[in-house]
DNA sequence: AATGGGTCGAAGCTTAGATT
DNA sequence: AATCTAAGCTTCGACCCATT
């Protein structure tokens, strides 16, 4: 039963300290604890580490993540000479425990589908990565190299060293999470209908302005149109028509902003012949008419925030 | 002249349930 | 689980007119 932590990919990381530690007798005698997360990577094993009641033996390349305030020490006084890197850090928002059995897999970790596959849907604000508590990374030498750099940064402590340290830590955590993802993916087999879905999305993305009729789709994908609707809805969470409409409006938004084309010609370009119909659709999705939208964008060079 | 808005029916789309 | 069928729902765009 492995323990994992879910942490936001956009979490703010703050490295408190990093160092290389050589295991001596005192390591087994003293309890250590601190208010931060602490990531340990063993350079030379074995290291006998006890975290609260949990006793582990870590070998070269193994990593271990301690929770804030978690008491830890060595548990085998006879074993000396091991070495490990450690880095203490705070993360905002804080990583939380993650249970593969109970918690829903975050986007990107499950079979790689979902709304973020769709162009018009913004990427998830809180993309999560799963960091294992105890792990042996396939790129452990790379990881140890990063640790080495991190410790050097802390030792020299020049310029933007805290910023650079945070970046290094971020890379390390991402590395662990990616490796874990690789392991999980191998165990996951993709549903057959998912392949159909991907081809469908690709087709829609590339051909939405032209006349995408049900016959075209049926011919290109060799499936009944009604079935494609079902598959698309299942994976994307929205209907084909809705998606194409979003694509058209998004393209139109860009054209309104970047060109001086008339609403009529923009309507034609995104595949809606009737400008009246286009205008209505645009207002429905954006909340403003095309002309209003263009004026607003021109007057306020800020990013639009409508959904 | 260009654009925004309302109504309505045919065409197109979606979904529940059947079928393989 | 993947696919199809049939029924019912939704939308597009033609036709109006109003506003700038």
UniProtKB/TrEMBL annotation:
Pfam families: AraC_binding, HTH_18. Keywords: DNA-binding, Transcription, Transcription regulation. One of its GO terms (molecular function) is DNA-binding transcription factor activity. Residues 198-296 form the HTH araC/xylS-type domain. SMART domains: HTH_ARAC (SM00342). Gene3D superfamilies: Homeodomain-like (1.10.10.60), Jelly Rolls (2.60.120.10). The keyword Transcription applies. The keyword Transcription applies. SUPFAM superfamilies: Homeodomain-like (SSF46689), Regulatory protein AraC (SSF51215). It comes from the Bacteria. This is HTH araC/xylS-type domain-containing protein. It comes from Paenibacillus flagellatus.
């Amino acid at each position: 039963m492995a323990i994992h932590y879910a942490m936001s990919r956009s979490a703010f990381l703050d490295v408190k300290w990093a160092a290389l530690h050589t295991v001596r007798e005192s390591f087994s005698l003293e309890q250590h604890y601190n208010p931060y997360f602490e990531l340990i990577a063993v350079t030379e094993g074995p290291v006998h580490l006890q975290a609260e009641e949990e006793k582990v033996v870590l070998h070269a390349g193994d990593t271990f993540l301690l929770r804030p305030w978690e008491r830890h020490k060595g548990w085998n006084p006879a074993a000396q000479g091991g070495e490990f890197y450690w880095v203490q850090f705070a993360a905002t928002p804080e990583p939380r425990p993650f249970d593969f059995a109970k918690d829903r897999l975050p986007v990107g970790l499950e079979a790689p589908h979902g709304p973020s596959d769709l162009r018009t849907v913004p990427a998830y604000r809180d993309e999560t990565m799963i960091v294992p508590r105890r792990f042996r990374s396939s790129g452990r030498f790379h990881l140890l190299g990063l640790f080495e750099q991190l410790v050097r940064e802390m030792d020299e402590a020049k310029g933007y060293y805290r910023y650079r340290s945070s970046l290094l830590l971020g890379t390390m955590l991402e590395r662990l999470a990616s490796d874990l993802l690789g392991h999980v993916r191998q165990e996951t087999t993709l549903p057959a209908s998912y392949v159909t879905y991907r081809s469908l999305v690709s087709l829609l993305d590339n051909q939405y302005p032209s006349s995408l009729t049900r016959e075209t789709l049926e011919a290109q994908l060799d499936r009944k149109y009604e079935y494609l609707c079902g598959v698309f809805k299942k994976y994307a969470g929205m209907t084909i028509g809705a998606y194409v409409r979003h694509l058209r409006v998004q393209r139109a938004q860009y054209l309104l902003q970047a060109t001086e084309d008339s609403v009529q010609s923009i309507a034609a370009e995104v595949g809606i012949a009737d400008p009246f119909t286009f205008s209505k659709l645009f207002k429905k999705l954006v909340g403003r008419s095309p002309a209003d939208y263009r004026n607003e964008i021109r007057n306020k060079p800020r990013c639009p925030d409508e959904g």
